[in-house]
Amino acid sequence: MPAQGGRWGRFLEQRARQLQRQVQAKEERIVELETENAVLHLRLAQYQGMTGKGDSTATRLCSQCRERDLPQRSTAPTTPQLHCQVQLCVLVQNLKQDMKALRASSLEVFRTCREHLQDGLSAAVEAVQRAQLCHEALLAWQSKAGHLERSLQEVSARYELEKQKRKMLHNCLVELKGNIRVHCRIRPLLPFDKEFDDPASQDSSVPAGVVHAVDDETVLVKCDRPAHPLINKTYNFERVYGPAESQQVVFGDVCPLLTSLLDGYNVCILAYGQTGCGKSYTMLGPRSKEAHVPPWGPHRDLGIMPRAARELFRLISENPSKSLKVDVSIVEVYNNDILDLLAKERRTAVSGPKRDARTSKAAKREVSPPTRQPVHSAEDFIALAAGSLPLRARLATQVHACSSRSHLIITATLTAASPCGSPADRQSPGPPLEGRPAWGRASPGSPGAQRPAEQVHAKLQLVDLAGSECVGVSGVTGSALRETLSINRSLAALADVLGALSERRGHVPYRNSQLTHFLQDVLGGDAKLLVILCVSPCQTHVAETLRCLGFGAQVRQVQRGQAGGGSAAPRKPRNQ
Ligand code: ADP
Ligand code: MG
Protein backbone atom coordinates (compact mmCIF):
# COMPACT_ATOMS: atom_id res chain seq x y z
CA MET A 1 0.00 0.00 0.00
CA PRO A 2 2.73 2.53 0.75
CA ALA A 3 4.06 1.78 -2.73
CA GLN A 4 0.66 2.66 -4.22
CA GLY A 5 0.55 5.86 -2.14
CA GLY A 6 3.99 6.76 -3.46
CA ARG A 7 2.81 6.20 -7.03
CA TRP A 8 -0.20 8.45 -6.47
CA GLY A 9 2.00 11.12 -4.96
CA ARG A 10 4.40 10.98 -7.90
CA PHE A 11 1.51 11.10 -10.37
CA LEU A 12 0.03 14.15 -8.64
CA GLU A 13 3.37 15.88 -8.49
CA GLN A 14 3.89 15.31 -12.21
CA ARG A 15 0.38 16.54 -13.02
CA ALA A 16 0.87 19.69 -10.89
CA ARG A 17 4.19 20.37 -12.63
CA GLN A 18 2.52 19.91 -16.02
CA LEU A 19 -0.23 22.35 -15.11
CA GLN A 20 2.30 24.81 -13.73
CA ARG A 21 4.12 24.65 -17.05
CA GLN A 22 0.85 25.24 -18.93
CA VAL A 23 -0.02 28.22 -16.72
CA GLN A 24 3.50 29.62 -17.21
CA ALA A 25 3.16 29.22 -20.99
CA LYS A 26 -0.18 31.01 -20.87
CA GLU A 27 1.29 33.77 -18.75
CA GLU A 28 4.13 34.19 -21.20
CA ARG A 29 1.61 34.33 -24.05
CA ILE A 30 -0.36 36.98 -22.13
CA VAL A 31 2.79 39.04 -21.69
CA GLU A 32 3.47 38.69 -25.42
CA LEU A 33 -0.05 39.74 -26.26
CA GLU A 34 0.11 42.66 -23.85
CA THR A 35 3.31 43.83 -25.51
CA GLU A 36 1.64 43.45 -28.90
CA ASN A 37 -1.34 45.42 -27.58
CA ALA A 38 0.87 48.17 -26.27
CA VAL A 39 2.54 48.41 -29.68
CA LEU A 40 -0.86 48.48 -31.35
CA HIS A 41 -2.04 51.16 -28.90
CA LEU A 42 0.97 53.21 -29.76
CA ARG A 43 0.36 52.83 -33.44
CA LEU A 44 -3.31 53.62 -32.89
CA ALA A 45 -2.40 56.78 -31.05
CA GLN A 46 -0.07 57.73 -33.88
CA TYR A 47 -2.79 57.11 -36.44
CA GLN A 48 -5.28 58.99 -34.34
CA GLY A 49 -2.87 61.90 -34.14
CA MET A 50 -2.40 61.70 -37.85
CA THR A 51 -6.16 61.46 -38.40
CA GLY A 52 -6.72 64.43 -36.14
CA LYS A 53 -4.23 66.43 -38.15
CA GLY A 54 -5.75 65.20 -41.39
CA ASP A 55 -9.19 66.10 -40.14
CA SER A 56 -8.23 69.62 -39.19
CA THR A 57 -6.35 70.11 -42.47
CA ALA A 58 -9.37 68.79 -44.34
CA THR A 59 -11.68 71.12 -42.42
CA ARG A 60 -9.38 74.00 -43.06
CA LEU A 61 -9.15 73.17 -46.76
CA CYS A 62 -12.89 72.75 -47.03
CA SER A 63 -13.49 76.16 -45.48
CA GLN A 64 -10.89 77.68 -47.82
CA CYS A 65 -12.66 76.03 -50.72
CA ARG A 66 -15.95 77.40 -49.59
CA GLU A 67 -14.44 80.86 -49.24
CA ARG A 68 -12.98 80.56 -52.74
CA ASP A 69 -16.18 79.09 -54.10
CA LEU A 70 -18.19 82.14 -53.19
CA PRO A 71 -16.74 84.56 -55.77
CA GLN A 72 -16.38 81.95 -58.53
CA ARG A 73 -19.26 79.48 -57.79
CA SER A 74 -19.73 78.58 -61.41
CA THR A 75 -16.08 77.46 -62.03
CA ALA A 76 -15.02 73.73 -61.30
CA PRO A 77 -12.19 73.02 -58.72
CA THR A 78 -9.48 71.87 -61.03
CA THR A 79 -6.40 73.38 -59.39
CA PRO A 80 -3.57 71.08 -58.09
CA GLN A 81 -4.24 72.24 -54.54
CA LEU A 82 -7.75 71.00 -54.72
CA HIS A 83 -6.60 67.69 -56.13
CA CYS A 84 -4.24 67.27 -53.21
CA GLN A 85 -7.05 67.99 -50.80
CA VAL A 86 -9.18 65.29 -52.32
CA GLN A 87 -6.36 62.79 -52.05
CA LEU A 88 -5.95 63.73 -48.45
CA CYS A 89 -9.63 63.14 -47.83
CA VAL A 90 -9.32 59.68 -49.37
CA LEU A 91 -6.29 58.99 -47.21
CA VAL A 92 -8.16 60.04 -44.12
CA GLN A 93 -11.05 57.77 -45.06
CA ASN A 94 -8.64 54.86 -45.52
CA LEU A 95 -6.99 55.59 -42.26
CA LYS A 96 -10.30 55.59 -40.48
CA GLN A 97 -11.13 52.20 -41.98
CA ASP A 98 -7.71 50.82 -40.96
CA MET A 99 -8.25 52.10 -37.47
CA LYS A 100 -11.59 50.39 -37.28
CA ALA A 101 -10.11 47.09 -38.46
CA LEU A 102 -7.23 47.45 -36.05
CA ARG A 103 -9.53 48.07 -33.14
CA ALA A 104 -11.66 45.08 -34.11
CA SER A 105 -8.63 42.78 -34.39
CA SER A 106 -7.15 43.95 -31.10
CA LEU A 107 -10.51 43.36 -29.48
CA GLU A 108 -10.48 39.88 -30.97
CA VAL A 109 -6.97 39.27 -29.60
CA PHE A 110 -8.08 40.45 -26.18
CA ARG A 111 -11.07 38.18 -26.22
CA THR A 112 -8.98 35.18 -27.27
CA CYS A 113 -6.46 35.93 -24.57
CA ARG A 114 -9.14 36.22 -21.95
CA GLU A 115 -10.66 32.94 -23.07
CA HIS A 116 -7.26 31.20 -22.94
CA LEU A 117 -6.60 32.62 -19.54
CA GLN A 118 -9.98 31.49 -18.31
CA ASP A 119 -9.41 28.01 -19.76
CA GLY A 120 -6.02 27.82 -18.09
CA LEU A 121 -7.42 28.96 -14.79
CA SER A 122 -10.33 26.53 -14.87
CA ALA A 123 -7.91 23.68 -15.83
CA ALA A 124 -5.67 24.66 -12.92
CA VAL A 125 -8.63 24.77 -10.54
CA GLU A 126 -9.79 21.40 -11.84
CA ALA A 127 -6.32 19.92 -11.42
CA VAL A 128 -6.07 21.27 -7.89
CA GLN A 129 -9.47 19.79 -7.09
CA ARG A 130 -8.42 16.49 -8.59
CA ALA A 131 -5.16 16.60 -6.65
CA GLN A 132 -7.13 17.20 -3.48
CA LEU A 133 -9.37 14.24 -4.25
CA CYS A 134 -6.35 12.09 -5.01
CA HIS A 135 -4.68 13.18 -1.82
CA GLU A 136 -7.79 12.27 0.14
CA ALA A 137 -7.98 8.90 -1.65
CA LEU A 138 -4.31 8.38 -0.93
CA LEU A 139 -4.87 9.05 2.75
CA ALA A 140 -7.81 6.66 2.75
CA TRP A 141 -5.69 3.99 1.03
CA GLN A 142 -2.87 4.60 3.45
CA SER A 143 -5.12 4.08 6.45
CA LYS A 144 -6.63 1.02 4.75
CA ALA A 145 -3.14 -0.35 4.06
CA GLY A 146 -2.17 0.23 7.68
CA HIS A 147 -5.29 -1.56 8.78
CA LEU A 148 -4.61 -4.47 6.42
CA GLU A 149 -0.98 -4.65 7.54
CA ARG A 150 -2.09 -4.86 11.16
CA SER A 151 -4.63 -7.59 10.38
CA LEU A 152 -2.00 -9.44 8.33
CA GLN A 153 0.33 -9.36 11.31
CA GLU A 154 -2.47 -10.65 13.52
CA VAL A 155 -3.34 -13.41 11.07
CA SER A 156 0.35 -14.36 10.69
CA ALA A 157 0.71 -14.60 14.45
CA ARG A 158 -2.44 -16.69 14.64
CA TYR A 159 -1.19 -18.86 11.75
CA GLU A 160 2.11 -19.47 13.56
CA LEU A 161 0.21 -20.39 16.70
CA GLU A 162 -2.08 -22.74 14.81
CA LYS A 163 0.92 -24.27 13.06
CA GLN A 164 2.56 -24.98 16.39
CA LYS A 165 -0.71 -26.41 17.69
CA ARG A 166 -1.07 -28.57 14.58
CA LYS A 167 2.47 -29.83 15.01
CA MET A 168 1.81 -30.67 18.65
CA LEU A 169 -1.49 -32.37 17.85
CA HIS A 170 -0.04 -34.29 14.93
CA ASN A 171 2.80 -35.51 17.09
CA CYS A 172 0.37 -36.33 19.87
CA LEU A 173 -1.64 -38.38 17.38
CA VAL A 174 1.47 -40.15 16.07
CA GLU A 175 2.60 -40.86 19.63
CA LEU A 176 -0.83 -42.14 20.54
CA LYS A 177 -0.58 -44.49 17.59
CA GLY A 178 2.86 -45.31 18.91
CA ASN A 179 6.32 -43.94 18.16
CA ILE A 180 7.16 -47.50 17.24
CA ARG A 181 4.56 -49.14 15.10
CA VAL A 182 4.39 -52.58 13.60
CA HIS A 183 2.39 -53.31 10.46
CA CYS A 184 2.10 -56.69 8.81
CA ARG A 185 1.73 -57.27 5.08
CA ILE A 186 0.75 -60.64 3.64
CA ARG A 187 1.81 -60.93 0.04
CA PRO A 188 -0.41 -62.80 -2.45
CA LEU A 189 0.36 -66.29 -3.65
CA LEU A 190 2.58 -65.93 -6.71
CA PRO A 191 3.37 -68.24 -9.64
CA PHE A 192 6.72 -69.19 -8.12
CA ASP A 193 5.02 -70.47 -4.92
CA LYS A 194 4.60 -74.26 -4.85
CA GLU A 195 1.12 -73.86 -3.42
CA PHE A 196 0.12 -71.80 -6.43
CA ASP A 197 -0.40 -75.01 -8.35
CA ASP A 198 -2.55 -76.44 -5.58
CA PRO A 199 -6.15 -76.62 -6.91
CA ALA A 200 -7.45 -75.58 -3.47
CA SER A 201 -5.62 -72.27 -3.75
CA GLN A 202 -7.19 -71.64 -7.18
CA ASP A 203 -10.65 -71.98 -5.69
CA SER A 204 -11.67 -68.51 -4.50
CA SER A 205 -14.05 -69.97 -1.87
CA VAL A 206 -11.08 -71.58 -0.09
CA PRO A 207 -8.73 -68.99 1.39
CA ALA A 208 -5.29 -69.44 -0.17
CA GLY A 209 -2.24 -70.04 2.01
CA VAL A 210 -1.98 -70.42 5.74
CA VAL A 211 -1.66 -66.76 6.75
CA HIS A 212 -4.81 -64.66 6.74
CA ALA A 213 -5.73 -61.08 7.56
CA VAL A 214 -8.72 -61.55 9.89
CA ASP A 215 -9.29 -57.82 10.06
CA ASP A 216 -7.31 -54.58 9.82
CA GLU A 217 -5.35 -55.42 12.97
CA THR A 218 -5.32 -59.20 13.28
CA VAL A 219 -3.39 -61.83 11.43
CA LEU A 220 -4.15 -65.51 11.76
CA VAL A 221 -1.72 -68.34 11.04
CA LYS A 222 -3.64 -71.56 10.69
CA CYS A 223 -1.84 -74.64 9.51
CA ASP A 224 -2.73 -78.25 9.94
CA ARG A 225 -0.06 -80.46 8.40
CA PRO A 226 0.13 -84.21 8.79
CA ALA A 227 2.73 -85.22 11.38
CA HIS A 228 2.96 -81.61 12.64
CA PRO A 229 1.21 -80.03 15.56
CA LEU A 230 -1.71 -77.83 14.62
CA ILE A 231 -0.84 -74.16 14.37
CA ASN A 232 -3.64 -71.73 15.11
CA LYS A 233 -2.20 -68.42 16.27
CA THR A 234 -3.33 -64.85 16.03
CA TYR A 235 -1.19 -61.75 16.28
CA ASN A 236 -2.26 -58.16 16.63
CA PHE A 237 -0.49 -55.27 15.01
CA GLU A 238 -1.27 -51.62 14.40
CA ARG A 239 -2.26 -52.54 10.87
CA VAL A 240 -2.55 -55.75 8.87
CA TYR A 241 -2.64 -55.66 5.06
CA GLY A 242 -4.22 -58.55 3.20
CA PRO A 243 -2.77 -59.91 -0.06
CA ALA A 244 -5.05 -57.73 -2.19
CA GLU A 245 -4.11 -54.42 -0.55
CA SER A 246 -2.33 -52.02 -2.84
CA GLN A 247 0.94 -50.14 -2.51
CA GLN A 248 -1.11 -46.95 -2.28
CA VAL A 249 -2.97 -48.20 0.77
CA VAL A 250 0.29 -49.16 2.46
CA PHE A 251 1.76 -45.73 1.71
CA GLY A 252 -1.38 -44.08 3.06
CA ASP A 253 -0.34 -45.22 6.54
CA VAL A 254 3.26 -44.07 6.01
CA CYS A 255 2.33 -40.60 4.84
CA PRO A 256 1.67 -39.00 8.29
CA LEU A 257 5.22 -39.93 9.30
CA LEU A 258 6.53 -37.62 6.59
CA THR A 259 4.60 -34.77 8.19
CA SER A 260 6.42 -35.66 11.42
CA LEU A 261 9.69 -35.62 9.48
CA LEU A 262 9.01 -32.07 8.30
CA ASP A 263 8.13 -31.21 11.90
CA GLY A 264 11.68 -32.19 12.87
CA TYR A 265 11.37 -35.81 14.01
CA ASN A 266 13.60 -38.58 12.74
CA VAL A 267 11.65 -41.27 10.92
CA CYS A 268 12.61 -44.83 10.05
CA ILE A 269 10.65 -47.36 8.02
CA LEU A 270 11.95 -50.93 8.12
CA ALA A 271 10.80 -53.85 5.99
CA TYR A 272 11.42 -57.11 7.83
CA GLY A 273 10.83 -60.68 6.70
CA GLN A 274 12.28 -63.67 4.95
CA THR A 275 13.57 -63.60 1.38
CA GLY A 276 10.87 -63.44 -1.26
CA CYS A 277 8.11 -62.21 1.04
CA GLY A 278 7.86 -58.73 -0.52
CA LYS A 279 10.22 -56.42 1.42
CA SER A 280 11.77 -54.85 -1.68
CA TYR A 281 8.37 -54.77 -3.36
CA THR A 282 6.95 -52.86 -0.39
CA MET A 283 9.90 -50.49 -0.01
CA LEU A 284 10.70 -49.86 -3.68
CA GLY A 285 8.16 -51.55 -5.93
CA PRO A 286 8.31 -54.51 -8.29
CA ARG A 287 11.59 -54.75 -10.12
CA SER A 288 11.23 -54.33 -13.87
CA LYS A 289 13.04 -56.65 -16.24
CA GLU A 290 13.27 -54.00 -18.95
CA ALA A 291 16.41 -51.91 -18.78
CA HIS A 292 14.80 -48.58 -19.68
CA VAL A 293 12.08 -48.81 -17.02
CA PRO A 294 12.99 -47.80 -13.45
CA PRO A 295 13.74 -50.90 -11.42
CA TRP A 296 10.52 -50.64 -9.46
CA GLY A 297 8.02 -51.00 -12.27
CA PRO A 298 4.89 -49.11 -13.29
CA HIS A 299 3.60 -46.06 -11.48
CA ARG A 300 0.67 -47.64 -9.66
CA ASP A 301 2.98 -50.23 -8.08
CA LEU A 302 5.55 -47.74 -6.79
CA GLY A 303 6.80 -48.65 -3.35
CA ILE A 304 7.29 -46.53 -0.27
CA MET A 305 10.61 -44.96 -1.32
CA PRO A 306 9.51 -43.22 -4.56
CA ARG A 307 6.16 -42.24 -3.01
CA ALA A 308 7.91 -40.88 0.10
CA ALA A 309 10.31 -38.88 -2.11
CA ARG A 310 7.33 -37.26 -3.87
CA GLU A 311 5.50 -36.54 -0.66
CA LEU A 312 8.65 -35.15 0.96
CA PHE A 313 9.22 -32.65 -1.85
CA ARG A 314 5.52 -31.80 -1.94
CA LEU A 315 5.61 -30.96 1.77
CA ILE A 316 8.82 -28.98 1.34
CA SER A 317 7.26 -26.95 -1.48
CA GLU A 318 4.31 -26.18 0.80
CA ASN A 319 6.70 -24.71 3.37
CA PRO A 320 9.15 -22.63 1.35
CA SER A 321 9.90 -20.49 4.43
CA LYS A 322 11.73 -23.41 6.04
CA SER A 323 14.14 -23.56 3.06
CA LEU A 324 15.05 -27.19 3.67
CA LYS A 325 17.63 -29.02 1.63
CA VAL A 326 17.65 -32.76 1.07
CA ASP A 327 20.76 -34.92 0.87
CA VAL A 328 20.57 -38.59 0.10
CA SER A 329 22.96 -41.35 1.06
CA ILE A 330 22.54 -44.98 0.10
CA VAL A 331 24.46 -47.72 1.87
CA GLU A 332 24.16 -51.43 2.33
CA VAL A 333 25.21 -53.34 5.40
CA TYR A 334 26.86 -56.46 4.11
CA ASN A 335 28.64 -58.93 6.42
CA ASN A 336 28.56 -56.24 9.11
CA ASP A 337 30.37 -53.77 6.83
CA ILE A 338 28.86 -50.56 5.63
CA LEU A 339 29.24 -50.11 1.89
CA ASP A 340 28.65 -46.75 0.31
CA LEU A 341 26.63 -47.20 -2.87
CA LEU A 342 27.07 -43.55 -3.90
CA ALA A 343 30.85 -43.40 -3.49
CA LYS A 344 32.63 -42.51 -6.73
CA GLU A 345 34.94 -45.49 -6.52
CA ARG A 346 31.93 -47.80 -6.24
CA ARG A 347 30.60 -46.55 -9.54
CA THR A 348 33.85 -47.18 -11.33
CA ALA A 349 35.24 -50.23 -9.56
CA VAL A 350 32.35 -52.35 -8.50
CA SER A 351 33.47 -55.68 -9.83
CA GLY A 352 35.13 -58.44 -7.89
CA PRO A 353 34.34 -59.98 -4.58
CA LYS A 354 36.63 -57.57 -2.72
CA ARG A 355 34.21 -54.98 -1.42
CA ASP A 356 35.10 -51.46 -0.44
CA ALA A 357 33.94 -51.42 3.13
CA ARG A 358 33.52 -48.10 4.82
CA THR A 359 34.04 -49.78 8.16
CA SER A 360 35.60 -52.98 9.28
CA LYS A 361 36.51 -54.43 12.62
CA ALA A 362 40.16 -53.49 12.07
CA ALA A 363 39.46 -49.95 11.06
CA LYS A 364 36.53 -49.15 13.30
CA ARG A 365 38.20 -46.04 14.61
CA GLU A 366 38.92 -44.59 11.20
CA VAL A 367 35.69 -44.18 9.39
CA SER A 368 34.36 -41.60 7.03
CA PRO A 369 30.71 -40.75 6.49
CA PRO A 370 28.98 -42.07 3.39
CA THR A 371 28.58 -39.82 0.38
CA ARG A 372 25.68 -37.44 0.71
CA GLN A 373 24.29 -36.37 -2.60
CA PRO A 374 22.10 -33.24 -2.67
CA VAL A 375 18.78 -33.79 -4.45
CA HIS A 376 16.48 -30.99 -5.59
CA SER A 377 13.39 -32.94 -6.59
CA ALA A 378 11.65 -36.27 -6.09
CA GLU A 379 12.82 -37.23 -9.59
CA ASP A 380 16.45 -36.57 -8.57
CA PHE A 381 15.93 -38.67 -5.47
CA ILE A 382 14.33 -41.56 -7.37
CA ALA A 383 16.91 -41.43 -10.18
CA LEU A 384 19.74 -41.53 -7.64
CA ALA A 385 18.28 -44.62 -5.97
CA ALA A 386 17.52 -46.19 -9.35
CA GLY A 387 21.16 -45.65 -10.36
CA SER A 388 22.64 -47.17 -7.23
CA LEU A 389 20.37 -50.17 -6.69
CA PRO A 390 21.66 -52.18 -9.66
CA LEU A 391 25.10 -51.81 -8.08
CA ARG A 392 23.84 -53.58 -5.04
CA ALA A 393 22.30 -56.36 -7.07
CA ARG A 394 25.36 -56.77 -9.33
CA LEU A 395 27.73 -56.92 -6.44
CA ALA A 396 25.48 -59.30 -4.70
CA THR A 397 25.24 -61.66 -7.67
CA GLN A 398 29.00 -61.87 -7.79
CA VAL A 399 29.20 -62.80 -4.18
CA HIS A 400 26.10 -64.87 -3.66
CA ALA A 401 23.08 -66.14 -5.49
CA CYS A 402 20.39 -64.25 -3.60
CA SER A 403 19.99 -60.54 -4.12
CA SER A 404 18.83 -59.59 -0.64
CA ARG A 405 21.80 -60.69 1.37
CA SER A 406 22.47 -57.19 2.59
CA HIS A 407 20.48 -54.55 4.44
CA LEU A 408 19.80 -51.57 2.20
CA ILE A 409 19.51 -48.20 3.95
CA ILE A 410 18.42 -45.11 2.04
CA THR A 411 18.83 -41.99 4.17
CA ALA A 412 17.39 -38.58 3.34
CA THR A 413 18.89 -35.88 5.56
CA LEU A 414 16.95 -32.63 5.77
CA THR A 415 19.05 -29.61 6.60
CA ALA A 416 18.03 -26.04 7.16
CA ALA A 417 19.99 -23.52 5.12
CA SER A 418 22.37 -21.74 7.45
CA PRO A 419 22.53 -17.92 7.51
CA CYS A 420 26.32 -18.05 7.49
CA GLY A 421 26.62 -19.94 4.22
CA SER A 422 24.93 -22.73 2.36
CA PRO A 423 26.41 -26.19 2.28
CA ALA A 424 28.46 -27.12 -0.73
CA ASP A 425 26.54 -28.83 -3.48
CA ARG A 426 28.53 -32.00 -3.28
CA GLN A 427 29.66 -33.29 0.03
CA SER A 428 33.29 -33.36 0.91
CA PRO A 429 33.31 -35.82 3.77
CA GLY A 430 34.42 -34.19 6.98
CA PRO A 431 37.21 -35.46 9.21
CA PRO A 432 36.60 -38.95 10.51
CA LEU A 433 35.13 -39.29 13.96
CA GLU A 434 36.60 -41.62 16.48
CA GLY A 435 34.94 -44.76 17.63
CA ARG A 436 31.64 -44.60 15.75
CA PRO A 437 30.34 -44.17 12.25
CA ALA A 438 30.07 -40.41 11.95
CA TRP A 439 26.97 -40.60 9.74
CA GLY A 440 25.22 -42.77 12.25
CA ARG A 441 24.93 -39.87 14.65
CA ALA A 442 23.97 -37.08 12.30
CA SER A 443 21.06 -36.14 14.44
CA PRO A 444 19.99 -32.65 15.41
CA GLY A 445 22.50 -31.34 17.88
CA SER A 446 25.23 -33.88 17.17
CA PRO A 447 28.10 -33.22 14.77
CA GLY A 448 27.93 -36.54 12.92
CA ALA A 449 28.05 -36.17 9.17
CA GLN A 450 26.98 -32.57 9.33
CA ARG A 451 28.81 -30.16 7.12
CA PRO A 452 30.15 -27.03 8.70
CA ALA A 453 27.46 -24.36 9.21
CA GLU A 454 24.50 -26.62 8.57
CA GLN A 455 21.72 -27.59 10.91
CA VAL A 456 20.22 -31.04 10.53
CA HIS A 457 16.45 -30.72 10.68
CA ALA A 458 15.53 -34.41 10.60
CA LYS A 459 16.43 -37.68 8.98
CA LEU A 460 14.38 -40.23 7.07
CA GLN A 461 15.73 -43.77 6.85
CA LEU A 462 14.16 -46.36 4.59
CA VAL A 463 15.49 -49.83 5.29
CA ASP A 464 15.05 -52.91 3.15
CA LEU A 465 16.41 -55.55 5.50
CA ALA A 466 18.04 -58.74 4.30
CA GLY A 467 16.01 -61.96 4.47
CA SER A 468 15.45 -63.14 8.01
CA GLU A 469 15.40 -66.89 7.30
CA CYS A 470 17.64 -68.97 9.56
CA VAL A 471 20.60 -71.06 8.41
CA GLY A 472 18.71 -74.37 8.69
CA VAL A 473 16.00 -73.19 6.37
CA SER A 474 18.24 -71.62 3.80
CA GLY A 475 20.58 -74.64 3.84
CA VAL A 476 23.57 -72.61 2.69
CA THR A 477 27.29 -73.24 3.11
CA GLY A 478 30.56 -71.38 2.57
CA SER A 479 30.46 -67.62 1.97
CA ALA A 480 26.66 -67.70 1.75
CA LEU A 481 26.62 -69.28 5.22
CA ARG A 482 28.83 -66.46 6.50
CA GLU A 483 26.44 -63.92 5.01
CA THR A 484 23.42 -65.65 6.53
CA LEU A 485 25.07 -65.81 9.94
CA SER A 486 25.97 -62.14 9.67
CA ILE A 487 22.40 -61.25 8.73
CA ASN A 488 21.00 -63.32 11.58
CA ARG A 489 23.42 -61.68 14.01
CA SER A 490 22.48 -58.18 12.90
CA LEU A 491 18.76 -58.97 13.08
CA ALA A 492 19.27 -60.47 16.53
CA ALA A 493 21.13 -57.29 17.51
CA LEU A 494 18.15 -55.29 16.22
CA ALA A 495 15.81 -57.39 18.36
CA ASP A 496 18.14 -56.90 21.38
CA VAL A 497 18.16 -53.14 20.94
CA LEU A 498 14.39 -52.99 20.71
CA GLY A 499 14.14 -55.34 23.73
CA ALA A 500 16.47 -53.11 25.78
CA LEU A 501 14.41 -50.09 24.81
CA SER A 502 11.17 -51.82 25.81
CA GLU A 503 12.61 -52.79 29.19
CA ARG A 504 14.04 -49.28 29.62
CA ARG A 505 17.46 -50.69 30.31
CA GLY A 506 20.20 -48.17 31.04
CA HIS A 507 22.40 -49.68 28.40
CA VAL A 508 21.05 -50.19 24.91
CA PRO A 509 23.45 -52.38 22.86
CA TYR A 510 23.46 -50.29 19.69
CA ARG A 511 27.10 -51.13 19.02
CA ASN A 512 26.59 -54.85 18.74
CA SER A 513 26.14 -54.52 15.00
CA GLN A 514 26.74 -51.95 12.31
CA LEU A 515 23.06 -52.08 11.46
CA THR A 516 21.84 -50.97 14.91
CA HIS A 517 24.74 -48.54 15.21
CA PHE A 518 23.78 -46.94 11.93
CA LEU A 519 20.12 -46.77 12.92
CA GLN A 520 20.80 -45.54 16.47
CA ASP A 521 19.12 -42.17 15.92
CA VAL A 522 15.88 -43.70 14.78
CA LEU A 523 15.56 -46.51 17.31
CA GLY A 524 14.07 -45.23 20.54
CA GLY A 525 13.81 -41.65 21.73
CA ASP A 526 11.13 -39.58 20.06
CA ALA A 527 12.00 -40.82 16.58
CA LYS A 528 9.20 -42.52 14.67
CA LEU A 529 9.84 -46.13 13.76
CA LEU A 530 7.58 -48.19 11.51
CA VAL A 531 8.38 -51.88 11.09
CA ILE A 532 6.57 -53.54 8.20
CA LEU A 533 6.58 -57.30 8.63
CA CYS A 534 6.37 -58.90 5.21
CA VAL A 535 5.12 -62.47 5.25
CA SER A 536 4.47 -65.11 2.67
CA PRO A 537 1.10 -66.86 2.80
CA CYS A 538 2.66 -70.23 1.92
CA GLN A 539 2.56 -73.24 4.13
CA THR A 540 6.17 -73.99 3.15
CA HIS A 541 7.32 -70.84 4.93
CA VAL A 542 5.09 -71.11 7.98
CA ALA A 543 7.97 -71.52 10.43
CA GLU A 544 9.68 -68.37 9.12
CA THR A 545 6.38 -66.53 9.13
CA LEU A 546 5.88 -67.40 12.81
CA ARG A 547 9.41 -66.19 13.62
CA CYS A 548 8.77 -62.98 11.75
CA LEU A 549 5.46 -62.36 13.50
CA GLY A 550 7.15 -63.18 16.83
CA PHE A 551 9.76 -60.51 16.10
CA GLY A 552 6.96 -58.04 15.35
CA ALA A 553 5.21 -58.91 18.61
CA GLN A 554 8.48 -58.27 20.47
CA VAL A 555 8.90 -54.89 18.79
CA ARG A 556 5.38 -53.98 19.85
CA GLN A 557 6.50 -54.45 23.45
CA VAL A 558 8.66 -51.35 22.94
CA GLN A 559 5.60 -49.37 22.13
CA ARG A 560 3.71 -50.70 25.15
CA GLY A 561 6.75 -50.06 27.37
CA GLN A 562 6.91 -46.47 26.16
CA ALA A 563 3.18 -45.92 26.45
CA GLY A 564 3.30 -47.31 30.02
CA GLY A 565 6.01 -44.77 30.80
CA GLY A 566 3.64 -42.00 29.79
CA SER A 567 5.33 -41.08 26.54
CA ALA A 568 2.01 -40.24 24.92
CA ALA A 569 2.31 -36.66 26.14
CA PRO A 570 3.31 -34.50 23.19
CA ARG A 571 7.00 -33.83 23.07
CA LYS A 572 8.71 -31.04 21.24
CA PRO A 573 10.85 -31.88 18.22
CA ARG A 574 14.48 -31.85 19.24
CA ASN A 575 15.50 -28.94 17.12
CA GLN A 576 12.51 -26.71 17.66
P1 ADP B 1 12.12 -59.73 -0.79
O1 ADP B 1 12.66 -58.39 -1.06
O2 ADP B 1 11.44 -59.83 0.52
O3 ADP B 1 13.12 -60.80 -0.99
P2 ADP B 1 10.59 -59.18 -3.11
O4 ADP B 1 10.07 -57.87 -2.76
O5 ADP B 1 11.73 -59.21 -4.08
O6 ADP B 1 10.97 -60.01 -1.85
O7 ADP B 1 9.35 -60.03 -3.66
C1 ADP B 1 9.48 -61.26 -4.25
C2 ADP B 1 8.53 -61.34 -5.44
O8 ADP B 1 7.20 -61.24 -4.98
C3 ADP B 1 8.75 -60.25 -6.42
O9 ADP B 1 8.59 -60.76 -7.73
C4 ADP B 1 7.64 -59.28 -6.11
O10 ADP B 1 7.28 -58.55 -7.26
C5 ADP B 1 6.54 -60.19 -5.64
N1 ADP B 1 5.66 -59.54 -4.64
C6 ADP B 1 5.96 -59.31 -3.36
N2 ADP B 1 4.93 -58.74 -2.71
C7 ADP B 1 3.95 -58.59 -3.63
C8 ADP B 1 2.63 -58.05 -3.60
N3 ADP B 1 2.11 -57.51 -2.48
N4 ADP B 1 1.92 -58.05 -4.74
C9 ADP B 1 2.43 -58.57 -5.86
N5 ADP B 1 3.67 -59.08 -5.97
C10 ADP B 1 4.43 -59.12 -4.87
MG1 MG C 1 14.62 -57.84 -1.50
UniProtKB/TrEMBL annotation:
**MF-aspect GO terms:** ATP binding; microtubule binding; microtubule motor activity
* Record-level GO cellular component terms: microtubule
Q: Highest taxon of the source?
A: Eukaryota
Taking the record's annotation, the residue ranges forming a coiled coil are: 9-43
Biased amino acid composition, Basic and acidic residues:
349-367
Against PROSITE patterns, the record matches this protein to: KINESIN_MOTOR_1, KINESIN_MOTOR_2
The UniProt annotation places ATP binding at 273-280
What is the first-listed, main subcellular location in coarse terms?
cytoplasm
Offer one example of a GO biological process linked to this entry.
microtubule-based movement
> Which compartment or compartments is the protein found in?
Cytoplasm, Cytoskeleton
Q: Where is the Kinesin motor domain?
A: 179-558
Q: Please give the SMART domains that the UniProt record associates with this protein.
A: KISc
Region Disordered, as annotated, extends over 349-375, 419-454
The UniProt entry, under PANTHER family, shows:
KINESIN FAMILY MEMBER 25, KINESIN-LIKE PROTEIN KLP-3
| Family of the protein in this entry | Belongs to the TRAFAC class myosin-kinesin ATPase superfamily. Kinesin family.
This one is known as Kinesin-like protein
Q: Which organism is it from?
A: Zalophus californianus
